[in-house]
Specification:
By secondary structure, the protein is mainly α. 94% of the residues lie in helices and 0% in strands. The chain has one helix and no strands. The relative contact order is 0.05.
């Protein structure tokens, strides 16, 4: 009979902690999403700077080519 009582108590503990675990998982998920968004923004800014640098290089090449046009 003791194992039935222990099993019942264990089931009650598990049931009572499930909402807490779900809340914890939600918080972890939101934090992970927030971190991912910050990384995406950072990478987007780096990409924007790289594109601007490539545009400057392209303009420099065009100027050099213009100097040698006949």
């Amino acid at each position: 009979m003791g194992s039935v009582v222990e099993s019942s108590q264990t089931a009650n503990v598990i049931q009572s902690t499930c909402p807490q675990h779900a809340t914890g998982l939600d918080q972890v998920s939101v934090a992970s999403i927030g971190h991912a968004v910050k990384q995406i923004v950072s990478h987007s800014n780096q990409l924007k700077e790289s594109v601007a640098g490539l545009e400057d290089l392209g303009n420099s090449v065009n100027e050099l080519v213009d100097q040698y046009r006949v």
